[in-house]
Amino acid sequence: MTVQQIMTELEKLGSPATKKVLLQHGIREPFFGVKVGDMKPIQKKIKMDYQLAKDLYATGNADAQYLAGLIADDVKMSKADLQIWVKQALSNNISEYTVPWVAAGSPHGYELAREWIDSSKEHISAAGWSTLANLVALQPNEKLDLPGLKALLARAVKDIHSAPNRTRYTMNNFVICLGAYVQPLSAEAIAAGKKIGPVTIDMGGTACKVPLAVEYIQKAIDRGSLTKKKKTVKC
After folding, report:
1. Which of 176, 203, 208, 221 is the 20 to 30 A CA-CA neighbour of 97?
2. Residue 98, SS3?
3. CA 176, 177, 181: angle at the middle one, nearest 5?
4. pLDDT tens digits, residue range 141-161?
5. Distance between CA atoms of 185 and 169, rounded to whole angstroms?
6. Three-class HEC string of 131-158
7. What domain range is 54 assigned to?
8. Are residues 100 and 161 in the same domain?
């Protein structure tokens, strides 16, 4: 499929009702309002295509950018590719899901995440913390920088309540994922979650709730997450 064929298909799949909901969740124009489930047949047809993913992302359309993340060949993504993607990730679903998914699956995820969390731009710092959360859920513990992650956990405890709105959200998720998927740091993440307590985030008037870190970590542990990493973070 070509970019134009995909854009035509996405436009047909979009709906005003879905678009209205997505706008409330921080998705920015331009986009058609396509449900993720309706993108799946296109993803299944394409499977994985590095160049097509980049071309779709470059349209700036949030639906196309989300689909681009689903079909991206993460391993082929260069640092330059990922830097372009994070700068253009102005919608919450792209900065907090699409870009972190692809970055975490690339060889550059940890390095770029450490850089992005220091950004003064909220969508980039949020992407950095989300990338870290995805990395710890995906990578075997022996491949993780445990001392570095421990230091980042302490930073989250110190800074989360003063961080920008969406950055607070992804920092909280990092604490949850660290506690749920990294056994050597699980107890410390639970202790950190207790120190952090409830995190207040403006959810744009939606019914979405902010996860309480300690509760979510324990639920994940009860499901056996500490002994089973995720095969993919894309959905």
Report:
1. 221
2. helix
3. 125
4. 999 999 999 999 999 999 999
5. 20
6. HHHHHHHHCCHHHCCHHHHHHHHHHHHH
7. 1-72
8. yes
Cβ contacts of 201 within 8 Å, gap of 6 or more: 165, 166, 168, 169, 210
Tell me: do 39 and 148 sit in the same domain.
no
The tens digit of pLDDT for each residue in 201-221 reads 998 888 888 899 999 999 999
For residue 96, what are the contacts with CB-CB under 8 A and spacing of at least 6? 126, 127, 130, 166, 169, 170
In a domain, 86, yes or no: no
In 3D space, the residue among 8, 113, 130 whose CA is nearest the CA of residue 59 turns out to be 8
Would you call 52 helix, strand, or coil by DSSP?
Answer: helix
Q: Which residues contact 89 (CB under 8 A, 6 or more apart)?
A: 65, 95, 98, 99, 123, 124, 127
Query: Residue 12: what pLDDT?
Result: 98
Q: Are residues 148 and 231 in the same domain?
A: yes
Quick check: is 56 in a domain? yes
In single-letter form, the type of residue at position 85 comes to W
Contact (CB, 8 A) for 69 and 102: yes
**Cα–Cα dist 171/195, whole Å:** 14
The SS3 assignment for 227 reads helix
CA distance 126 to 92: 9
Q: DSSP state, 74?
A: G
The model carries a pTM of 0.96
Total tally of structural domains belonging to the chain: 2
Residue 171, CA distances (Å) to 25, 115, 194 in order: 18, 15, 14
